[in-house]
Design a protein that fits this description.
- This protein is mostly helical.
- 52% of the residues lie in helices and 2% in strands.
- Strands 1-2 form a two-stranded antiparallel sheet.
- A hairpin with a 2-residue loop joins strand 1 and strand 2.
- The mean pLDDT is 94.
């Protein structure tokens, strides 16, 4: 349990902003739009993880480059993975900032191995009991890393999945899991069954962490795993069944620059 008690006015702000921003209009400007284009689970999984992996930097750039990745896969991600189309790419092709063709190939080789053996990433997550762990995202990534390392000749790739699991906030993976697990059918897709939404963690991006500190929800200065655990622990006191819903509120307040709203609550 958290020692931080959330004041009633802060809770009211978070609830109202989460309801307002968790709206279909959010989709068109967010990377969640890409996995939502597909109905087949494997297409959704591949697109969700790739869109999340490159989700750092300007949102318009992220969406532009996610579109480019889908184009490279001929808008058939699962078929592209299973046909090993990625092996024909130039490994030095720049795809997004410091993410290159060789990183794309690394990740998709691992995904093919997972699909060959388990059929879906959700089934893999179930097989490694990610949902039974108190920190499902970190458990899942650790198990994915083993597969990807094995199929890529023993190499690791921090551009695809963070390797310092004791420290990393796993922002991008926690975002992908929010899309795949949360099941209210508004923005998030709720296709996975291996992880309960009550065990999701907040994606600690720059907006979320800044607003959380301004609202007194997070007192720790580091942007690491412990901070994610602390913040999510506070939010679980409000919604133990669905703490990640507050990602919409914290992100929305931050990106819309609602500093007067935040200051007003603090006052």
């Amino acid at each position: 349990m958290s020692d931080i008690s959330v004041p009633a006015d802060v809770r009211e702000l978070l609830d109202s902003e989460a309801e307002r921003i968790n709206n279909p209009s959010f989709i068109d400007s967010d990377p969640v739009q890409f996995p939502r284009r597909f109905s087949r689970l494997q297409d959704v999984e591949i697109t969700a993880f790739l869109s999340a992996i490159i989700a750092w930097g300007n949102r318009k750039m992220i969406c532009r480059d996610a579109e480019r990745l889908l184009s490279l896969m001929d808008y058939e991600p699962y078929k592209y993975v299973m046909d090993e189309g990625y092996e024909d790419l130039n490994p030095d092709m720049n795809l997004h900032r410091t993410f290159f063709g060789r990183h794309f190939q690394y990740f998709l080789r691992g995904m093919k191995r997972i699909y060959d053996e388990f059929g879906s990433l959700d089934a893999f997550s179930s097989a490694v009991n990610a949902g039974g762990d108190s920190s499902p995202a970190w458990r899942l990534v650790g198990e994915m890393q083993k597969v990807m390392c094995d199929v890529n000749g023993g190499a690791t790739c921090s551009q695809c999945l963070p390797v310092n699991l004791d420290q990393t906030a796993l922002k991008r993976v926690n975002m992908a899991l929010r899309w795949l697990v949360r099941d209210d059918g508004i923005v998030d897709m709720g296709l996975w069954h291996s992880i309960p939404k009550s065990k999701l963690y907040i994606p600690l991006d720059v907006h979320v962490r800044n607003v959380s500190r301004e609202l007194g929800l997070l007192t720790r200065k580091a942007n690491d795993r412990k901070s994610v655990e602390m913040l999510t622990g506070v939010l679980r006191t409000l919604r133990p069944d669905d703490p990640a819903i507050y990602d919409f509120a914290l992100f929305g307040i931050g990106i819309e620059g609602k500093q007067k709203m935040v200051t007003g609550v603090q006052a």
